[in-house]
Every structure is written in structure tokens, then in C-alpha cells.
Amino acid sequence: MVRITDEGSHFDAPITKVWKLVELHGEKLSEIHPEVQHPHIEMVGENQGMIRYTMEMNGQKIPVRLRTTALPPLAQVLEHLDGPLAGSKIISYYTAKGDKTAVTVIADFESPMMTPPQLEAAGREFLDRGFDQDQAYLKKMH
Q1: For 99, what's the count of Cα atoms within 13 Å in the CB-facing half-sphere?
Q2: Which residues are CB-neighbours of 118 under 8 A, at least 6 positions away?
Q3: How far apart are CA 111 and CA 39, in angstroms?
């Protein structure tokens, strides 16, 4: 397991807009995150959903399954159930800062197929890419 903590990031949007983005992941996941192919999202509780999609890795299509739990406007939890990061858990905690929203991420990454150095690099890349794509999509939102 590799733990990554990021306490210095922020979105250039108020928390209400950030939560709208969190909700839009249920409708526009592959638009927000283009590497997500053929997403299927099913709500399994009031604030919990199961997400299935495929992604390409080393020329192969890999199935991924996540459980997401939203705790508006406080936090979101992602649990990787299947795929290259199976067993990983990511908590994103949001704090309103006027016209910005601070985000603290604590992630325990696991993988059945990566060494710890590979896993740390993959975990950081997953977090950075997701944050950058979310930030870019926020700019398109009205």
C-alpha cells in the first residue's frame, strides 16, 4: 500500500459549483474524463453509486469498477473494486474558501499488479490527471 496526502490544492470555483461538478460525473463522466470509455453508473443508495467503465492500458482494454460515496458538501470517497488500482481508497475533502474551494486528498493506493514505486507513480498520475480534468471542466460550466 502507498499513502498519498495532498493538502495544498484548490479548485477555482465556489463549493456549490464544485458539488455540481461532482454530481455531473454521474451524467458526463467520459466528457469530464476522456480516458473513461463506455461508462455505466448505477445508484445503489441515496448517496452511493457503482461505476463501471473500460480504460486502455498498454494497448489493452481494462475493465474498472468503482464505488463512489458523496457526502455533500463535505467529502467524496472513491473505492476501486476492480481494475489496476483494485483495493485503493481515495477521500477528497472540500472546504469553501469564498470563490475557491480547497481540496484535501488522502489516498491509500493498492494494486495487485504494481510494485510500490510503480504504484506511487500511478497513484499520483491518477490524482493529478483527475484534478486537472475536473479543473478544466469547471471552467466550461456556467
Answers
A1: 1
A2: 111
A3: 22
Domains assigned to the chain:
2-33+68-140 (3.30.530.20)
pLDDT for 71 equals: 95
Q: What is the mean pLDDT of the chain?
A: 94
What is the distance between the alpha carbons of residues 114 and 67, in angstroms, rounded to a whole number? 21
Number of H helices, E strands in the chain: 2, 7
- By CB atoms closer than 10 A (0-12, 13-18, 19+), residue 64 is buried
User: What are the tens digits of pLDDT across the range 19-59?
Assistant: 999 999 989 999 999 999 999 999 998 899 999 999 887 78
Q: Which of 29, 25, 68 is nearest to 45 (CA)?
A: 68
- Which 8-state DSSP code applies to residue 136? H
Q: Say how many CA atoms lie within 13 Å of 86 toward its Cβ.
A: 11
Work out the angle at residue 94's Cα, subtended by the Cα atoms of residues 129 and 49, and round it to the nearest 5 degrees: 70
